[in-house]
Amino acid sequence: MATIEQNLKPRRFDLARPSRQHLLGYILLAPAVILVALIIIYPLFISVDLSFQNVKLARIGSARKAFTLANYEKLFASPDFWLACWVTVKMVTAVTIGSLLVGVSTALLVNNKFRGRTLARLVMALPWAVPEIIAVVMFAWIFDSTFGLISWLIWKIGLTTELIAWVSTPGPAFWAITVTMIWKGFPFVSIMTLAGLQSIPDDFYAAAKVDGANALQRFRWITLPCLMPVLGVTLVLVMLWVFRDFSIIKTMTDGGPLKSTTTLSIMTYEQAFGFFKFGYASAVGVVTLIICVVASLAMLGRGSKAMY
Amino acid sequence: MAKISIENVHKDYGDFTALHPFSLEIQDGEFVVLVGPSGCGKSTMLKILAGLEPATGGQIRLDDRDVTDLAPGDRDIAMVFQNYALYPHLTVRQNIGFGLKMRKVSSNQIARKVEEAAKTLGVSHLLDRKPKALSGGQRQRVALGRAIVREPQAFLMDEPLSNLDAKLRVHMRAEISALHNRIGVTTVYVTHDQIEAMTMADRVVLMRDGVIQQIADPDTLFQKPVNLFAAGFIGSPGMNLLSAAFDGAMIEMFGKQVPVNIQENAQLGGVIAGLRPEHLELGDGPVTFQVRPSLVESLGSEKYVYFHDEAHHIVRSGDAEEENDKGLIARVSHTGHLSENENLTLSFDPANLYLFDAETERAL
Amino acid sequence: MNRTPLQSILLYGTVIFAATIILFPIFWLFNTALSTTVELTQLPPSFWPEEAQWQIFTKVWNDRPIPLWLWNSTITAVGSVILSMTVSVLAGYSLSRFSPRGSHGMGLFILTAKMLPATLLVIPLFAIFRSIGLIGSLWTLIIAHSTLIVPFTTWMLKGYFDTIPRELEQAAMVDGCSPLGAMFRVIMPVSMPGLAATALYSFVLSWADYAYARTFLVNSQGNWTANMGITTMRGEYVTDWNEIAAAAVFVAIPIMVIYLFLERYLVGGLTAGAEK
Asked: pTM for the full model?
């Protein structure tokens, strides 16, 4: 008995019907699934496929070469591979620890209430906004062997007797990259830690104070435990970022000198586009991925849901 | 305005049955309340009525029109939500008029209808504001406005008062009832609050764990609960329930023999006796006994007297476990001081007793 | 909070100290850009040029194909954002509103996608694009960047949509909308802040890519993105550091401006995406 003129056009395929409502979920998911299947899953399969072939320059559609384990055998026997592993581990450890220290400290700092706090927060996270290539430009110049600031500073302070050729000496090159990465990486840790800190209810601290805990005890028994989950996830994400990084290392040292900064990621690329050994390169890449997955899951265990 | 016919509607989630076959005939213009504790299936039923969830089986008819698998927008119903669900990016005016706009009503008509609805609910002065600038009560009124403006055949309300503070809740309760008296649209109202059910409903549907316990008007529900759950759920404070031995003609309560009239054969399972707190009185009466109160709460002219009785096992059906420890409650009219831990005389009339089979929990 | 004057000094002092160290490289970049070559090739390094050489910016802008590079980066980023956002908004909404059946699988996938080194994926993608004949076109980048973006943005958006109550769509449907209608008329307008932040984040991710650009565009100078262009400015033996610094400023500015807009939403977006 409607008194208003209502024009509801009858829909043919009516997704609004209760029995059909859930279909929309699948329809909306379809584009993503298709895209992902095409550009991530399919290429991933190709990669794995290539790793089992003796392929130089791959071409889709050409006849598949014979299945061979040669790439993997060569891989595990190659000293370059193990060196790359070692370099990767070193770099991951150094950058992760560095970013964690700087990131958590800055977050703790900025968590206090003071005037100019918003500005400080903005500043603290600014390196995140700088593209990696630009960061390389900055630090390559600062670490320049002849005229760079750091070289001169260290020489002036008296730590060295002559100017260090940062980029062309194995040891210093590693640290130049590490410093650059920490500078780029810590803001992420800072932001995540800050979010974690701010989610700790004030009541916890109030209760602790009433119970007589001092600042250090409050940090140890309240702040740290509450922060653990966040830090865990953040740690793994930073780790993965270092593992995967290409831009910084490639443009700063190109994996040199003498492969002292060649991580697994760089090695993968080199083999593919430097030496045009797609099969071998894919094998390196696949192994890198497996290491990543295993390491992340090991670190997070059942908490892996938090990583989504 | 229409009658709603629900036939054997049930809802399963895999192995779990959220709603057992549910049948109900709602008359044109009736105000029916679905009430029960959380998880009893009342909201599920409402969502199925609205078309927001598909039923696993059964049929729903609106005025003899089969709407079981019809889109929510095609059922000619309106819904009011617990969280109001006002569109944050639209003004109050646009919020109220949204449904009309979707139905391609002319903008002149929309404007007129919106003004009318706003006036009915007293929100005319808020028409150009956005929801975030409104108080809880105002938002609820706008939500009601959005519902009435389309003049639908039925209203569905999902715990609309739960988010309001106590005083506002009482006020809005009266407003909704008044609105219903004025407009007279068939309404299905869901709540967990038995007071709302009792004060607003023409008929109450009491539910528990997906099963209808009793369908009755409020008075009948209060006076003749059909099982233990219904007896315990309705009324505040809840009914006192104790197990009592039955010897064929008498049951024993508080150390006294009380004559009862039980038609059915209940000897096998034992009996549970129910006594509402307000039916206990101070002083002597048909059945008198002494107690020592463990706690006395004073509400001014009334007192709640809490006492224990070791001889009887106190029964609580449902989820009110915490109330169990407090023991039995008597609600007495008394001004002045009643002290705890001093003997007190209470009495009751056996005619006010409710009796239930201990096994089946049904009324005797 | 009551602080003693000493605590205040310590706090402000530490903050200023930290900020200085953090901002230093950025400052140094400007310093380098504005210095003359003479000043740059002498020790000790000067902390600010005697005469700031502002004309270096116009020089670099005119001499080098910087406008072209910026243009290419922009088109690629805009293209990637459109592609990725379309896909991930729909997917994120679906994951938020509809059954968890796909949720766990999607979650696992996203986990793996975050671990994929670009250097692995670039190999097969190169082979694929080569077979299609797309190598050298910016389309390769637009498509390839989605591999970087979609895993993150889908989850960010899901987290964001989770914060919008389902009752809104239900009310819209009772009012007469179809489920799609409810999504576009009600949920999308309400989600604007989250959508904008995610889009900006996607832009940043696309702009930052180097691996794909370098691989797919190496032979197509006309299509070089900013990142590629800058790296070529480093000469084999000699680099005009003031020029490259000036170019670097051009490339960094758009992103830093976006960051200023984004900062507010950053925490929410990143944590919604990474923490649940």
From this structure: 0.84
